[in-house]
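Sequence and fold
=================
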Amino acid sequence: MDRQELAREVLGILADAGFDSYYCQSSPGCFDIAASKSKVVLVKILENIDAFTSLQAQSLSSVASMLGASCFVVGYKSKEYSLSDGTVYMRHGITTCSPGTFSQALEKGVAQAKKFRRTMAVVDFEALRSARVEKGLSIEGLAAKAGVSPDTVYRYEHSLTLASPQNIRRLEAALGLENLTAPTSIEPSRQAAQQRQSAGSNVFTFLGMLSVHVAGPVDMMCKVASAPKRGPNAGANTIIAEQDHDMRTLERRAKTLAGLSKVMLSYPCFFVGSSAKQSISGIPVVSRLELGKIRNSQQLLELIGSKTR
C-alpha cells in the first residue's frame, strides 16, 4: 500500500469518527492532515516511520502545543518491524501507530491510547550509552554481545525507536545493568515545545502574539490572547501564514491556507515585503509596511478581516 492509499485510509478513519479534515497533499511538511471535531488532531502519514525527522517532530510538537492539539505519526512499518495494531510506538517523542491503532485512539479518546502500549518500552539512552562507553564497547561490539543489530543499538542510543522487552533484557545482561527502561509519556513535552516556540524580539511578540515557525505545510502560525466575537472568523484566535514567496508559489499555497483555516478555524494570511494586492486567490495580503503600523493583535486581525473576500 502506498502513501496515497494510506492517506485515504486515515481520512476515512477521521470521517467515520466525525472529524472535518483537510489533506495538505501539495504542501507536505511536519503534518499532512489537519482535522477537527471538539479538538484539533494533526497527522503525519508515512509508509515508513523512519522517514519522520527530529526537525519535523520539533515543529509538529510546537504547533500542537500552540493549538492544544493531539498529534500522531501514522504508518505501516519501520526498518526493523511492522507496526502492530494495539501498540503505540514513539518517534522523536511523537505518538506513532498503525491506522488500526489510530482508529482505536479516536474511538476511545486520545488519552486512552496509552493502554495500547502493550509491549514496547523506552530505553534510557543516556544510561545505555554511558554503560557502553564505560565498558569500552563500540556500538558494534555491544550489538554482537547482546545479539541485536548495530543499527538497533544506534537507534536506542539516539531515542529513535522503542525497544521490545526481549531486547531490553539482552542489553541489560550484556552491560550488567538491572534496568534500562525509562519513564515515558504518550504526549510530547509541552514545556519543551513551548521553549521552541518563537519568543524572540519580533513584530509578533511586540503585538502580544505567540508565534512559531513551521517546517511545512505552512511557514508560520501566530496566536492571539483573545478571539474576535464578531465577523466571518468569530472565535478564531490563530493566524496561519506564508511569508515572502514568489507570486506563483503564493498562488499555489493559497489552497492549502484556505483549507487549513477552515478546518482549524483560523485566519489565513500572506505576509510579504511589499505588494499592491489586497489578496491573492482570496487569501489576504499584509505588507511589511502595513505590519509596521499595527500596534496590537486586534488591529492585525481587523486588517486581515477587512481584506477577506
Summary: The chain is about 40% helix and 20% strand. The two ends are 41 Å apart (CA to CA).
